[in-house]
Write a structure and sequence with these properties.
Elements: E1 2-4, H1 5-12, E2 15-17, E3 25-27, E4 29-30, E5 41-42, H2 56-61, E6 66-70, E7 82-85, H3 88-102, E8 106-111, H4 116-127, E9 133-135, H5 145-151, E10 159-163, H6 171-179, E11 183-186, H7 194-197, H8 200-207, E12 219-223, H9 228-234, E13 245-249, E14 259-265, E15 268-273, E16 277-284, H10 289-304, H11 309-317, E17 327-330, E18 336-340, H12 346-358, E19 365-370, H13 379-388, E20 397-401, H14 405-412, E21 421-424, H15 427-437, E22 443-447, H16 455-463
Parallel strand pairs: 4-5, 5-6, 6-7, 8-10, 8-11, 9-10, 11-12, 12-13, 18-22, 19-20, 19-22, 20-21
Antiparallel strand pairs: 1-3, 2-7, 14-15, 15-16, 17-18
Helix pairs in contact: 1-3, 3-5, 4-10, 4-11, 8-9, 13-14
Amino acid sequence: MKRTLKEMAAMSGGEAVSLAGEDLPVQGVITDSRKLTEGCLFVPLAGEKFDGHDFAAEALRRGAAAVMWQKDHGVPPAEGPVILVDDTLAALQRLSSAYLQASRARVIGITGSNGKTTTKDIVTSLLSTAYKVHKTQGNFNNHIGLPLTILSMPEDREFAVLEMGMSARGEIALLSGLAQPETAIITNIGESHLEYLGSRQEIARAKLEIVSGMKPGGLLVYNGDEPLIPEALREGRTVKPQQLNTFTFGLQPDNDDYPTGIMFQSGGTVFTSHRFGPDIVFSLPLLGRHNVANALGAMAVAFHYGVSGEQIRKGLEDLLLTGMRIEVMKGVSGLTILNDAYNASPTSMRAAIEVLQSMKGFRRKIAVLGDMLELGEGAEQFHREVGQYLTPEKADFLFAYGALGTYIAEGAAERLPASAVHAYTDKSKLIQELEQFLQPGDIVLVKASRGNRLEEVALHLKNSPLNQS
C-alpha cells in the first residue's frame, strides 16, 4: 500500500500530526516492529501481554515514516509523524477495508471447518492462469491477519483470495464486512470450535456469516454434501445480500458438480467431473477424496470468472501448497511420511485415515494420531470414535499421542489387535519407539491439532535412518 500520510489518516478515520507535512509518502503497514521496513506505517496493537505503543518511538528512529497512536495512551512520540486514532485495531481494519474497496481487486472469501487453506491455494493457482492474484499467506485469517493481508496487496492485483477463520459467532461477519466479497466458498462444517459454539448447527451459522458482507448478486459456492449449510441459509435470521446466487459441489451426484471418476496415485489424485465432462482429466497433487471436493469448489469459482477447463487443468498441475496438509515426505531410510500435522478435527481425521487406506504398495500402514483440540464436553467420545474408525483395512498399527490420544487408543483397541495399539504422553518416547519399530517400505500418517506440534515427529522420522537391524 502506497499513500500519503493525509490519505492514510483519512482512510483509517484518524488525524495526521506531522511537521513533515501531510503529503509525506508512506509505503507498507506493519504491526510487528521486528519486521519494520523503511518508510512504512507502524500500527501499535495492545494485547494481554504486550503493548505495541512501547515500540512506537523506536520504530520511528529505525525508519518508519509514521506511526499510529491510540489517544488514550498518553502523549505520542515526538520522533516523527503520527496518526491519532481512537482505537488502533479498529483503525487498522478501516484502513484495510478502504484500501481494498478503492482497488480494482475482486474479492473471494473462503471459510469452513477444514480445507480453507488448501482451497485458498487451489483458487489462487487456478485464477493465476488468467489474472493477477493476491492471497492470504499462511493462516493470516483473523481480525488482525486479514487486514494485514489486504494491506500487503500490490496495487495491480485483479483478485484477492482471502481466508476467513473464526472461533466464535460474529468473527466471520466482521471479516466479511471488511472485505465485502463478491464470491464466497464454504468448504464444509466440522466439529472444530464445538467447545465455544456448542453444536454443529451453530458452527454452520457462524461459517455462513461470510454471506453477510457479500455484495448484491454475489455467488456462494458451498459443499452440498453438508445439509446444515442450506438449512442455516434458509433461516430468517441469516443476513444475506440481495439476489444471492448459489452453486454446490461435493462427492454426491445431487450437487451441481461432483467427481465422475477418481483414481489415487502415489503423489496425488486423478479425477474427472460432471461439469467438465469425461474429456478433461484433472491431476491434483494432493491425496484424498476430500481434496477432490475442495478442488471442485475452487474450480467452480475459477469457471465463474471465465477460466477455461484447460487453464483449470494446468492450474491444478502447477499448484503450490501451504505446508503440512497431507504433505508426502520421503525419509532417508526409505520410509514414506504423510505429514498432516497442521490441524485436526474428527472430520479431517477420518479423511486422513481414508487417505492412508488408499495408499497402495507399502509394507505396513501406521497411523500416528494426536489430540484434537477445542471439541468441548464431547472431546473424549470424539477421540474414541476416531479410534473406532481405524479398522485393519485402514491401518495396521496405531501410535496415539497426548492425554486425549489415549481415548483414540481405547477406540482402536476395539477394532485392531491389542499388539497393534500403542499410546504415549511423552513425545520423545514416542519418537524413540517409532524409530525402533518402523522399517523402510512403511508408510506413516502423522496428524493432530497444531498444539501437539507433531510435525516434530514427522521431521525427525524423515531424517532418521531408523533401526534397520
